[in-house]
Structure formats: structure tokens, C-alpha cells
Design brief:
Blueprint: H1 25-30, E1 45-53, E2 56-70, E3 76-87, E4 96-100, H2 109-116, E5 119-120, E6 137-138, E7 148-152, E8 161-162, H3 166-173, H4 176-193, E9 201-206, H5 208-224, E10 230-234, H6 252-268, H7 274-285, H8 287-294, H9 301-313, H10 317-322, H11 329-335, E11 342-344, E12 352-354, H12 368-389, H13 402-407, H14 416-427, E13 432-438, H15 446-454, H16 461-464, E14 465-470, H17 480-494
Parallel strand pairs: 4-7, 4-9, 9-10, 10-13, 13-14
Antiparallel strand pairs: 1-2, 2-3, 3-7, 3-8, 5-6, 11-12
Helix pairs in contact: 4-5, 5-14, 6-7, 8-9
């Protein structure tokens, strides 16, 4: 889940007072002690549960456990907490799927209890509220009948934690390159710990987790010595240059955003369909680009853009005209619901909340989906871990850490996920990829993936890389119909009939 502007209170350390007599620098460093020692996390805990799926009862074991992260000298520097669901029988050849959410700063609760885990809690659709009961139910669309499931919370999310000071934590965990390095090792260590190296392996990531997935797969292939059978990229964050408002010279961000705005408008009219979407996709690839680049050199270019964009989005022509046809995401979410004094979510623009400041020139409130899901998902996950499983800790569960997001060093790796995706499938002619989106998502619009796939080499791409788009937004799986379609597409990837 890409959560813009996120900011886990870091665990900081301070140097102990230096001894009165002078000491060598090495001795002084050895005297430095943390202000407070963190209590150890509990030992791994497993319970037996069952779920009704596909008309039958499936028995499984639910485990909450930890994987230690160590530095080059073997010193433990972090605890990574995971939640695993494994079907009883200890079959070493049963597929296993490793799932990551994004942010950076999001725990894996969203894919766990929203998408593919055996239990789910409702969130992500219009009408959800923070006070909704944190009660889970059997998930009819769980993937547990196809694969064992391991949900990993990166450092600073969930109950996973760094054991280093703030500065070293940023260096070792809060950057794009360090993130891929230690999470790939965590996957390897889990496989070794549980004797699953012979199992077919799948990596799944949502949003920034979709950025992680191909990079982790390539690192597993080339650094860890672990082959990956398939990738599932959910609403992936793949090309930062294609997301946002963009500069005045590039039509790309506007091309990518317009189809998702159009989808929301069509859905509101009951007319959303692949055929209807093909029309706007063709427009942004052709006439829109021509008129956009013509600019003021063609007196009719801007007016043509205004007319088409207004028609596609449902916005008043006067509003679109003021923007010269370039409707940014913020303006769209405010204007499309202004008459109802509501605001739309960037994750699904048809999910709304009342605008607490409708008379303000600028939006002054949070996102309707994020603000509504934090309480029920956090409460449901903590209740499951501490009460049901009995893995007791007094640490706070970080479902969404704004501190991690704020501290993140994005470096110069923006092009890496697509490059590593190409290299990973180029290396392994048997590996398959499923990229999935919701039509209404404006945080990671589906058309980015459409364009990226269209530009990929032809080495088996058409047979091995599939894009599916479903009704809904970033968390389209919150809609039962879309979740069911998603599982059906995944069954093909896993070779399940």
C-alpha cells in the first residue's frame, strides 16, 4: 500500500557519561549503553484453526514468530515478526507465498486480513468507519487452499523492530537497497527454518510491496540461491515518474491518471466495462498526446482536451478549462464530490467521507479510506495475535507508520523494479507474473502497468506476464466480486484447476 506522507517512533540510544579519567576511543564506545533495554519478544507460538473455503473445511496452523536480522559480524540488529498459515501435514513440496505490503511503513495486515488470509475484516469500501467492530470472519476467497501463506512485517511495522539507534536503523532498514537486502534474507531464513526450500515459492507485494516483489525475487535468484516460481504484484508502485502531477512538458502523468478518473465516473453511472475503458485508453495514447504536445501552437488543442476530459471525468467544463484540461489528482478528488460536500479517497475515488471543512479553498482532512481502516485493522490484528494465538507483547502494533515513511531514503533506485522484473523473468523462463489493479485507484493507477507491460521485451512476456484490472480501487479485494476474480486469476498462476 503506498501511503504518501507517512511518519514508528524510533528507538533512540544515548551515550553513557564518559568516565572522568580519559579512555581510548574504543573503550569509550564500549561504555555506551542504550537508555532502556527492550524486553525480548515472545517465542514463536502456533495454534490450530480451520476455515470454510470452497465448500469444505480446511484445517491449518497459525503461527506468529520472529526471524532475527544480523549484521556482518553476526550481531542481532532487528527482530522481524511474521504471521504464517500452513496447512496441516508438513508437506515440504506444498507451495508457499510470501506477502508484503508497502508504504513504506505499512504492515502486512492488509493483505493478511483483507485479501488472501484465512480470516478477514471488512475495510476499504464506502461507509466503513473507525468504530466498525474488529471482528474477523472466514474469508471465502483465501488462498490457503492453494498455498501456505507467510505475511512479513518489515522493520518498523507491525511488531517488527530495530535493535539499533535511530541513525543506524535508517541506514540498515529504511532505504530501498537495504530493504531488499534484509527482506530477501528473511525469506531465505524462513524457508530454511521450516524446511521448505523444495517448495514452489511465490512472492506477493501490494503498492510499495509491488516495488519490493520483483526486486526480492531477483535478489533471491541471484544472491540467496532461491528460485521463485511466480510473482503477484497488487496495485504496484512501479514507476515514480509516472505518478503524480508531473511537470508541464510530460504528458505521461496525465495520460496515466485519466483512465482511473474515467473509471470512477463510469462506475457511478453503471457503465464501467473493459470496452468502455478501451475508449479512454485509446484516447490518451493518441489524440490526447498530440493535443497536449501541441499546446498553444494549435488554437483548438486545449479546447479539445477540455471537452474530452470533462466528458470522461464528469467534471464541469468550466473547472476543467481553468486547469487547461490537466486535472491533477487533488483537484479531481475535491471537485468531483464538491456538490455533496464530500471528499474522495486517492485509493478509490468513489469511497468518500464528509468534508469537515467544505468552505476551505484547500483540503484539510485525511484520506477517507486510510482514516477509516486504521482502527479496525489494528484492533483485529492485535486481538488475533495476543488473544487468539496467545503471543503476548506490550509493544504497540504499527499498522501504518508515518515515521518510517518520513525517514525512508528512496535513493536513486526508482527504475529498479521494472529492470529487476525484466531480469528475473529473463533469467527464469518458467517464472510467471500476475499484475493486478483496481480501476479507480489514483495512488497507483493501473494504466502505468499497462504501458510498462506494452514496452517489455517479447521473450515469453505475453504468455507469462498477465495484467488484470477489477472494479474497485487500490484495495479492490475489499469487494467480494473482485476478490473472487483475483483468486481465479491467481489459481491459473499457481496451476490450480
Amino acid at each position: 500500500m503506498l501511503v504518501a506522507g507517512l511518519a514508528l517512533a524510533p528507538w533512540s540510544t544515548a551515550a553513557a557519561a564518559a568516565a572522568k579519567d580519559a579512555k581510548p576511543a574504543a573503550d569509550a564506545a564500549a561504555d555506551k549503553k542504550p537508555d532502556a533495554e527492550l524486553p525480548p519478544l515472545p517465542a514463536d507460538k502456533t495454534i490450530k484453526q480451520s476455515v470454510r473455503v470452497g465448500g469444505r473445511t480446511l484445517s491449518y496452523e497459525a503461527t506468529v514468530g520472529t526471524i532475527p536480522v544480523r549484521d556482518a559480524k553476526g550481531k542481532k540488529i532487528a527482530d522481524v515478526v511474521y504471521t504464517a498459515y500452513t496447512v496441516s501435514g508438513n508437506d515440504p513440496h506444498r507451495p508457499v507465498t510470501f506477502a508484503f505490503n508497502g508504504g513504506p511503513g505499512a504492515s502486512s495486515v492488509y493483505l493478511n486480513m483483507g485479501a488472501i488470509g484465512p480470516k478477514r475484516i471488512q475495510f476499504g469500501v464506502d461507509g466503513d468507519a473507525p468504530s466498525d467492530a474488529a471482528v474477523t470472519k472466514d474469508n471465502p476467497n483465501t488462498w490457503l487452499d492453494m498455498s501456505d501463506l507467510v505475511f512479513i512485517d518489515p522493520v518498523g511495522t507491525g511488531f517488527s523492530r530495530s535493535l539499533e539507534d535511530e541513525e543506524q536503523t535508517k541506514k540498515d532498514f529504511y532505504s530501498t537497497e537495504a530493504d531488499i537486502k534484509y527482506l530477501s534474507r528473511v525469506v531465505y531464513d524462513w524457508l530454511v527454518k521450516h524446511g521448505r526450500l523444495r517448495a514452489p515459492k511465490y512472492v506477493m507485494g501490494e503498492s510499495y510491496g509491488g516495488y519490493r516483489a520483483p526486486r526480492i525475487a531477483y535478489a533471491l535468484q541471484t544472491k540467496m540461491g532461491v528460485g521463485v516460481n511466480g510473482l503477484v504484484m497488487v496495485s504496484p508502485y512501479l514507476d515514480p515518474a509516472a505518478i503524480g502531477d508531473g511537470d508541464a512538458l510530460s504528458p505521461l502523468p496525465w495520460m496515466i491518471n485519466l483512465p482511473s478518473m474515467t473509471a470512477a465516473h463510469l462506475e457511478g453511472q453503471g457503465r464501467l466495462s473493459p470496452a468502455a475503458m478501451a475508449d479512454v485508453e485509446n484516447y490518451v495514447r493518441t489524440q490526447f498526446v498530440t493535443d497536449f504536445l501541441a499546446g498553444r501552437s494549435d488554437p483548438g488543442a486545449i479546447s479539445r482536451i477540455v471537452q474530452k476530459v470533462s466528458s470522461y471525468t464528469g467534471l464541469e467544463p468550466s473547472v476543467v478549462s481553468k486547469l487547461d484540461g490537466r486535472v491533477d489528482i487533488g483537484s479531481y478528488l475535491r471537485e468531483v464530490h464538491r456538490a455533496d460536500k464530500k471528499i474522495g479517497s486517492v485509493y478509490d475515488s468513489n469511497v468518500t467521507a464528509f468534508d469537515p471543512f467544505p468552505g476551505s479553498a484547500e483540503r484539510q482532512s485525511g484520506d477517507p479510506i486510510l482514516d477509516a481502516l486504521l482502527a479496525p485493522t489494528t484492533s483485529a490484528m492485535v486481538d488475533f495475535v495476543t488473544r487468539e494465538v496467545g503471543w503476548q507483547t506490550d509493544a504497540h502494533y504499527e499498522a501504518l507508520s508515518y515515521a518510517v515513511n518520513k525517514a525512508w531514503d528512496r535513493g536513486n533506485a526508482d527504475d529498479k523494479p521494472v529492470a529487476d522484473l525484466r531480469k528475473a523473468i529473463g533469467n527464469d523462463p518458467n517464472m510467471k507474473v500476475l499484475i493486478v489493479h483496481g480501476y479507480n485507484d489514483l495512488s497507483c493507477p493501473y494504466f502505468t502497468s499497462r504501458l510498462i507491460i506494452d514496452q517489455m521485451p517479447t521473450f515469453g512476456q505475453s504468455q507469462r506476464v498477465k495484467l488484470s484490472v477489477y472494479p474497485g480501487g487500490h484495495m479492490f479485494y475489499s469487494r467480494p466480486g473482485s476478490a473472487s476474480s483475483f483468486k481465479a486469476d491467481a489459481a491459473t498462476l499457481y496451476g490450480v484447476k
